[in-house]
Model the fold of this input.
Amino acid sequence: MIVHDSLKTQPGEKVIIYADPTYSQALTEQVRIELVRAGAVELSVQMVNSGGLEAVRRSHRRREDPVLVDMEDKAMASMFDLADIYIWLPSFWLINPGQTEKILKTWPGRSIHFNWVIDPNDPVEFGLLSEMYEKALFIDYAALDFRQLELIATLRNSTVQITNPAGRYLTFTL
Done:
């Protein structure tokens, strides 16, 4: 699990979680439970802007007014100054003010984020990937680690060629 194995969360560490309430609620809940089990302090759970809120923010040009941008960026940075860990859970990427990426470039804490590049309006794709992420919560990490190390040993000092159904190919040497 990301809380214990990847981030090696320690008792008393302060955590910021960035979550989208429309994506993978089971993942968000399980991460929060594991943080409690690790003895961490949940500093905040930030929500992605909803479509309606983002529309109002854009109509008021919240990220165009330099005074407002500075105010919001400083507020966000001051929250990160208090945190040890940042967990960016799956969210709708198009609604993202951008402050976090700027802060993470120099922030000394530990962080992890999920890549989630799907259209939330496609219920089939959204459902399949949500299910995949939720199953990942219960992976046998020792077995996964063993398989990955086996694959690394097999591929080391070899050339790999991948061809997709359209005939495009990629070749690289390890």
